[in-house]
């Protein structure tokens, strides 16, 4: 089954709303120069919350073939949760994807699979797609337990979701040791875990759901290494950090084919 590739740029805590305008405009112009129209690959930018309204206005106003994502969401609908942002608020801003369970949130904000699962359910209920992140640290990789560790995360994060919901979401496999380090996993490493995740989705749900769910690789993806990662049968895209902050570099990743 042909899955549409999805290239998502997670800006993390970088760029204010003025800088965001510059980057998105430059990205759109670079993509337009190469006749990108969004039909064969999804291009998603994931700025900080404070940039979302500005980027939404720009994308919608100029009809750029770029989609909007957010980096986090509350597990609650509304109420006395100071500092939180709800799924409903994000959906209203035209956000299509929300990253959950990124290793930086697991590490610095104690996010667990149970919390990721609750957030994913809220994102889906609001009509958006979660990008559910998973992946092992260096120690687990060295012990050779990376597949079982990652599948355990996946089982926890998908708990209670129905096949239709799982088919519509995105899973991002990001080995923590490859994030921001320049230490990219080999294409074989990426395929091993992405393939195992797809098999696990087939086991938990059915083959049609496994064939539909999109699985990204993330961790030091750049323009020069994206093609060989994308050549792997179970890799459907990339979650890109550092390289998504440079318009030409990220455009080249989107245009990998
Ligand atoms: O969300 C993106 C990942 O953490 C990868 O970041 P990176 O491309 O800077 O290694």
Descriptors:
alpha/beta, globular, eight-stranded parallel barrel, 12 helices, 8 strands
Any overview of this molecule?
The structure is a single chain. The chain is of the alpha/beta class. The chain contains twelve helices and eight strands. The chain has helices at 17-33, 52-61, 87-92, 103-108, 113-125, 138-142, 146-158, 163-168, 187-204, 207-212, 226-230, 247-254; strands at residues 6-10, 42-46, 67-70, 97-100, 129-134, 170-173, 214-218, 237-240. It has an eight-stranded parallel β-barrel, surrounded by five helices. Strand 2, helix 2 (52-61) and strand 3 form a beta-alpha-beta unit. Helix 1 runs parallel beside helix 2 (52-61), helix 1 crosses helix 12 and helix 5 (113-125) packs across helix 7 (146-158). The two termini are 18 Å apart. The mean pLDDT is 97. The structure holds glyceraldehyde-3-phosphate. Residues 10, 102, 174, 179-180, 218-221, 239-243 line the site of glyceraldehyde-3-phosphate. Pathway: Carbohydrate biosynthesis; gluconeogenesis; Carbohydrate degradation; glycolysis; D-glyceraldehyde 3-phosphate from glycerone phosphate: step 1/1. Involved in the gluconeogenesis. Catalyzes stereospecifically the conversion of dihydroxyacetone phosphate (DHAP) to D-glyceraldehyde-3-phosphate (G3P). The active site is at residues 102, 174. Its EC number is 5.3.1.1. This is Triosephosphate isomerase.
Summarize this structure briefly.
The protein is α/β, with parallel strands linked by helices and 257 residues long. Helix content is 44%, strand content 14%. Strand 3 (67-70), helix 3 and strand 4 (97-100) form a beta-alpha-beta unit.
């Amino acid at each position: 089954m042909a899955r549409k590739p999805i290239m998502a740029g997670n800006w993390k805590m970088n760029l204010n709303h003025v800088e965001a305008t510059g980057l998105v405009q430059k990205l759109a112009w670079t993509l337009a120069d190469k006749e990108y129209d969004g039909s064969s690959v999804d291009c998603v930018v994931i700025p900080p919350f404070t940039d979302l309204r500005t980027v939404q206005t720009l994308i919608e106003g100029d009809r750029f073939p770029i989609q909007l994502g957010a980096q986090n969401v509350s597990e609650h609908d509304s109420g006395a949760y100071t500092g939180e942002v709800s799924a409903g608020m994000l959906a209203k801003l035209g956000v299509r994807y929300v990253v959950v369970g990124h290793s930086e949130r697991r590490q610095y904000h104690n996010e667990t699979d149970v919390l990721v699962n609750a957030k994913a359910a809220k994102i889906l209920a609001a009509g958006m797609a979660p990008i559910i992140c998973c992946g092992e640290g260096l120690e687990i990789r060295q012990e050779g337990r990376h597949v079982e560790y990652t599948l355990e995360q996946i089982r926890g994060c998908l708990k209670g979701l129905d096949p239709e919901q799982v088919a519509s979401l995105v899973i991002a496999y990001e080995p923590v040791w490859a994030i921001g380090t320049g230490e990219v996993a080999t294409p074989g490493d990426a395929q091993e875990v992405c393939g195992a995740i797809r098999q696990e989705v087939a086991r938990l749900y059915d083959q049609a759901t496994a064939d539909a769910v999109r699985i990204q690789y993330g961790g030091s993806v750049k323009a020069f290494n994206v093609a060989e990662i994308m050549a792997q049968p179970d890799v459907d895209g990339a979650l890109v950090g550092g390289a998504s902050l440079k318009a030409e570099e990220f455009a080249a990743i989107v245009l990998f084919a």
